[in-house]
Design brief:
The chain is mostly helical and 517 residues long. The chain folds into two domains: 213 residues, no CATH class; 207 residues, no CATH class. The protein is built from 15 helices and two strands. A two-stranded antiparallel sheet has the order 1-2. Strand 1 and strand 2 form a beta hairpin. Helix 1 packs across helix 7. The longest helix is centred in the N-terminal third of the chain and has 67 residues.
């Protein structure tokens, strides 16, 4: 992995780790304060907003990140791109807010979801502007390679949301309080982000529109990106919305809890995807297909190994993790969580591939691949939810998620790169198969509780024993089977910032014959 790509990844990874810790500490509080029914309401509104914002912002955020990062032989290229997308973001946000207000005011929201949802959708009118300019600011900073600003700002946004939402919910404002915290934190983060961008390029020039700017190319990319992101986000949210409309009640909250835990499997692939869109855009523009193939192949293998390990751990600990983390009332979420895990692994594998495809800018094949998965997902949810409820949603969504990897392998070959060149299928399968037995069996032998006297809390000891023990077992088997090589591990270490980089370079010099890739 190139040092610039690795640097961006590490910036995102460190911020994601902080956000993850914050989420681990605060999500159970939010879920238990709201309860399954109100979590279902909050989750439904967030899902509707996410689907709606695709049409408002998807072309803007991905477009500005891609085109700012490109090396174009033009003076003031970056400023012109930033200005073009700023104007577009403002226009689309105004149109989206008006549409959201009209749908609520004239009763469409009340008809579909019930009148209790209307105050939350009025909040989303402001939320359109918050989400639009927060997304624009963050992706613009990433396009400039300024992850050192964009990612701490994301942590700030998350922290402000928690600091606002939890008190509002505790004071009795329910789902509306949680949503208000989300909207206001987004507005503040957007303002801070725009201020940072203004130090890089002049926002006063946002009204300028040079004749040489490739507007048709940019708008075509925007339109295709909107379609791609709608299909992608439908995989995230269609199941929740369908479950609310067709079943409703506490089942939506249980299912949302299962999704929250399953999405931990996407943590690292999402970090990689965030860096790859603009990093790979630069490699594609320089015709570095050999380097793209190398990065794609190694990333696919690492992602498969990591998510398989995390998936095994999640399945092994589901019975104790769900009630401990979300609360005993969420125990019905265990079964849908286990059903979601296989599909979540497949979806995780597809995320970096999609980013490399987006980086080239030819979105026809990624759209076809994602569209095929979206159709599978929607049809299965429609068929299985009425009969099997949240378990049917979990099976349908898992199959839809898993199909993403298969369809995007086809798409990757059409776009022009080979993600399976270094997969080592037999060795990876052997690693997962050999590690599965010990990891899945270990919780049966660790049944004691760990008592924390300072807070008077008793926690299952397996939550602290199984993850490190499972990691040790999995890594040992991975090295023995050759699924991971010593040399490539040293290469990754050597590419890291110090002190890890120093360790890797010393190992390479001291054992050159053993650390050769």
């Amino acid at each position: 992995m190139d040092r610039s790509i690795l640097s961006g990844f590490l910036s995102i990874a460190s911020a994601k780790a902080i956000s993850l810790v914050m989420g681990i500490l605060t999500t159970p509080v939010l879920y238990q304060l709201l309860g399954p029914r109100r979590i279902g309401i909050f989750g439904t509104v967030v899902s509707v907003q996410a689907l709606f914002m695709i049409f408002v912002s998807a072309g803007v955020t991905d477009g500005v990140r891609k085109y700012v990062a490109e090396d174009r032989d033009r003076d003031r290229w970056e400023g012109a791109v930033v200005g073009f997308y700023f104007r577009l973001a403002l226009l689309l946000a105004a149109a989206g807010a008006l549409l959201m207000f009209s749908a609520t005011h004239f009763g469409l929201v009340g008809t579909v979801f019930g009148q209790a949802y209307e105050p939350l959708f009025y909040l989303l009118v402001v939320g359109v502007f918050a989400a639009q300019f927060w997304g624009y600011a963050r992706r613009t900073l990433m396009g400039f390679g300024l992850e050192r600003y964009s990612e701490p700002l994301k942590v700030f946004n998350h922290g402000l949301f928690v600091g606002l939402a939890l008190p509002l919910v505790a004071l009795g404002f329910g789902a509306a309080g949680a949503l208000a915290g989300r909207v206001f934190s987004g507005l503040v983060a957007a303002v801070v982000g725009l201020a940072i961008i203004a130090r890089k390029v002049s926002l006063r020039g946002a009204t300028a529109s040079p004749d040489w700017l490739p507007r048709r190319e940019m708008l075509t990319f925007n339109s295709l990106t909107i379609l791609l992101m709608f299909l992608m986000m439908s995989l995230y949210h269609v199941d929740v919305v369908m479950l609310q409309v067709l079943v409703g009640g506490a089942a939506v909250g249980y299912y949302k809890g299962a999704l929250t835990l399953a999405e931990f499997l996407w943590m690292v692939p999402l970090m990689i995807q965030s860096v790859f869109v603009h990093s790979m855009s630069e490699l594609w523009s320089n015709d570095r297909v050999d380097r793209i193939n190398e990065i794609a192949a190694r990333t696919t293998r690492y992602t498969l190994l990591l998510t398989a390990l995390m998936g095994l751990g999640l399945v092994a600990l589901a019975d104790v993790a769900v009630p401990t983390y979300l609360g005993s009332e969420y125990a019905p979420a265990v079964t849908p969580l286990v059903l979601l895990v296989p599909g979540a692994v497949g979806f995780a594998l597809a995320r970096p591939l999609l980013a490399i495809e987006q980086g080239k800018g030819d979105l026809r094949y990624p759209i076809a691949a994602t569209g095929a998965s979206a159709v599978v997902n929607a049809l299965l949810n429609l068929a299985l939810i009425p009969r099997f409820g949240m378990r049917g949603a979990a099976v349908a969504t898992s199959v839809g998620y898993a199909s993403m990897f298969g369809f995007h392998l086809w798409s990757a070959r059409r776009v022009g790169f080979q993600p399976l060149a270094d997969l080592r299928v037999g060795r990876v399968v052997a690693t997962v198969a050999l590690a599965a037995g010990p990891i899945l069996a270990l919780p049966r032998f660790v049944t004691a509780d760990l008592v924390v006297p300072a807070v008077g809390v008793s926690l299952p000891l397996s939550l602290f024993v199984v993850p490190p023990a499972g990691l040790l077992v999995f890594l040992t088997i991975a090295y023995l089977t050759g699924a991971v090589g010593v040399g490539e591990t040293v290469d990754v270490l050597a590419s890291c910032p110090d002190p890890l980089g120093t360790v890797g370079r010393r190992l390479r010099r001291r054992f050159p014959e053993r650390t050769a890739s």
